[in-house]
Write a structure and sequence with these properties.
Keywords: Isoprene biosynthesis, Nucleotidyltransferase, Transferase. GO terms for molecular function: 2-C-methyl-D-erythritol 4-phosphate cytidylyltransferase activity. It catalyses: 2-C-methyl-D-erythritol 4-phosphate + CTP + H(+) = 4-CDP-2-C-methyl-D-erythritol + diphosphate. Pathway: Isoprenoid biosynthesis; isopentenyl diphosphate biosynthesis via DXP pathway; isopentenyl diphosphate from 1-deoxy-D-xylulose 5-phosphate: step 2/6. Its EC number is 2.7.7.60. The chain has about 250 residues and is of the alpha/beta class. It has one domain (about 5-145, about 170-235): Spore Coat Polysaccharide Biosynthesis Protein SpsA, Chain A (Alpha-Beta Complex). It is built from 8 helices and 11 strands. The chain has helices at about 5-10, 40-50, 65-75, 90-100, 120-135, 175-190, 195-200, 220-235; strands spanning about 10-20, 35, 40, 55-60, 80-85, 105-110, 135-145, 150, 155-160, 165-175, 210. The strands form 3 sheets. A 7-stranded mixed beta sheet has the order 5-4-1-6-10-7-11. A hairpin with a 4-residue loop joins strand 8 and strand 9. The longest helix has 16 residues, at about 220-235. It is globular, with a radius of gyration of 18 Å. The termini are far apart.
Length: about 250
């Protein structure tokens, strides 16, 4: 293998999709398996990465009881990017850890993307990949735009400055060894976090913020589902011309 081939192999990219959740806040069938357009949400997410030239592998963490069913369904779609479907864990963190074990050896850049976040643009994926290759870890983010106040059920309190506050999105991306080390340490220390950025920061690594878009929302509530259905025809017909005007700069 010459130097160019070695660099190409070391630059391979995989995306992990934790899809073992029950979607309790939305109710009914888990959101990742609901039909959005012609396919389930999970398939639509995978198709976004299937179309991205930088991403060569996808590993899905499905509910343990549905691994065979989900594998058959995804293989029937003819997804060349699909590398493996593994059993997920009791929470998102353990599902990512299980998926990480199935990443092929040549992969050096690992993305983690929510199974219910179908409106991710190719340019945003590429920006995260490039930021990982340059700095080691990155995540899509959107600055908080709303006024923030403390309070309780009875009264509102003081205003909280929104300067420097971000809403986290996915994909989040990492050097493979950083993410593997982060999960090993989290397991050893019984550390729980809501995303992989927190685990990597626990190792004192910096994470680069990459401008995201408010269109890249996660389907969580019935209102989110209604919005996703309304936006889908526009996204389906022209994903790269989709209105991203409400970006991180707004």
């Amino acid at each position: 293998m010459d130097d160019a081939d070695a660099r190409a192999r070391s630059d391979e990219v995989a995306v992990l999709i934790p899809a073992a959740g029950g979607g309790r806040r939305l109710g009914g069938r888990p959101k990742q398996f609901r039909a959005l357009g012609e396919h389930p949400v999970l398939v639509q997410v995978l198709l976004s990465f299937e179309r991205h030239p930088a991403v060569g592998h996808a590993v899905v963490a499905a509910p343990e009881s549905r691994v065979t069913d989900v594998t058959d369904r995804l293989q029937a779609e003819g997804l060349s990017v699909l590398t493996a479907v593994v059993g997920g864990g009791a929470d998102r963190q353990s599902s990512v850890r299980h998926a990480l074990r199935a990443v092929p050896d040549p992969v050096n850049t690992v993305l983690v993307h929510d199974a219910a976040r179908p409106f991710v643009a190719a340019a945003q994926v590429q920006a995260v990949v490039q930021a990982v290759r340059t700095g080691g870890a990155a995540s899509l983010v959107v600055p908080v735009a709303d006024t923030l106040r403390r309070g309780d059920a009875d009264r509102l309190g003081e205003t909280v400055s929104r300067d420097g506050l971000y809403r986290m999105q996915t994909p989040q991306g990492f050097r493979r060894e950083w993410l593997e080390h982060a999960h090993r340490r989290a397991s050893a220390e019984d550390l729980a976090a809501t995303d992989d950025v927190a685990l990597v920061q626990h190792l004192d690594h910096d994470v680069v913020p990459v401008p995201g878009s408010r269109r890249n929302f996660k389907i969580t509530t019935p209102d989110d589902w209604a919005l996703a259905q309304a936006l889908w025809p526009t996204w389906r017909d022209a994903p790269e011309r989709f209105d991203l005007s409400s970006s991180a700069s707004s």
